[in-house]
Amino acid sequence: MAECTFVILGATGDLAKRKLFPAIYKLIKDKKIKKFAIIGAANSNSSAEKILENSKKFIKQYNSKIWESLKKSTYYQQLNFYNTQDYPKLKKIIEDVEKKHKLYGNKLFYLATLPEHFKKITELLSKNKIVKKHINKKECSDCKHPWSRIVYEKPFGHNLKSAQKINKYILKLFHEKQIYRIDHYLGKELVSNITLVRFTNKIFEPLWNNKNIDSVQIILSEKLGIDSRGKFYDKYGALKDVVQNHMLQMLAVTTMEPPKKYTAKEIRDAKSNLLEQVKIDNVILGQYQEYTKEKDINLKSKTETFAALKLFINNKRWKNVPFYLKTGKALDKKEASIHLKFKMVKCILSKSCPTDSNYLTIKITPEEGFFLELNAKLPGVKDKITTVKMDFCHPCTFGPNSPGAYEMLLLDVINGDQSIFVRSDEIELSWKIIDQIDKNKLNLYKYKKGSKGPKEIELLDPNKKIIWRA
Ligand code: BG6
Question: pTM score, two decimals?
Answer without folding.
Answer: 0.95
